[in-house]
Amino acid sequence: MNIFKTILIAGVTLFGATFAQAQGLENMTDAEREVFRSEVRAYLLDNPEVILEAIQVLEQRQAHEEAQSDIDLVKDNFEELTRDGFSWVGGNPDGAITIVEFSDYRCAYCKRAHSEVATLLAANDDVRLVLKEFPILGADSTLASRAAISVLTQQGNEIYGAFHDLLMARNGAINIKTLSRLVKNAGGDADLMVAHLDDPLVDEIIAKNRDLANRMKITGTPSFLIGTEMLRGFAPASAMQDFVDRARSQL
Predict the structure, then answer these.
(1) Residue 226: how many CB atoms within 10 A of its CB?
(2) DSSP 8-state assignment for residue 128
(3) Distance from C-alpha of 157 to C-alpha of 129, rounded to nearest angstrom
(4) Residue 218 phi/psi, 5° resolution?
(5) Do 185 and 164 form a contact (C-beta atoms < 8 A)?
(6) Can you list the domains of the chain with their CATH numbers?
(7) Which of 22, 131, 195, 224 has its CA 20 to 30 A from that of 204?
(8) Local structure of residue 48 (DSSP, 8 states)
(9) Cis ω before 222 (30° cut-off from 0)
(10) What is the pTM of this model?
């Protein structure tokens, strides 16, 4: 069943239920119910615009409920999202506005978002960026994130930042040879990276990020927290700027 058909059925159901309640027909007999259904069908055929109105009401209601749910999730997890003590922080580390990004190195939309986020940071000197390693697209994703976390914990923010940029620009399979070359290009130590790929700390950070994503109901990448709002999916810098402007107005 496609999404339009699902929404259409839900919209008709919403209309029918509302109309039935308005008419006080909750306790209809089978015969009365059949007549009612026929009348509703005839009415909808004569007035199809009612279906679109019902769908719009349903969509607005769902959007409001989802937005409220996100507000509650952000409030409950704000400190862990923005200041967990182990995620990489870029942009202006002291910026008043925080963007948190959950990303995967095998995610094509994450790669597209990478340059958009860079554009956004260049235009806003009061924004700090927190990156959450969130590998969800298979073994290559996990290997890349393990390597990145190894670099972050053993070789510091600067090397990690350069390594992250190179990984996001990389297309194709990811393996130890490729990762070693990239970390060298980032000015880091490939042997040190490999030596710490399987550190318990790497496991712990990935597990914490996955647990946080689960609590935030994040199932795809990229996903963003901008200020106190959730942005689920890719957006150009201009759209993200609207989120930043709203966050700034609330300071």
Answers:
(1) 22
(2) E
(3) 12
(4) -95, 120
(5) no
(6) 3-70 (no CATH), 83-249 (3.40.30.10)
(7) 224
(8) T
(9) yes
(10) 0.76
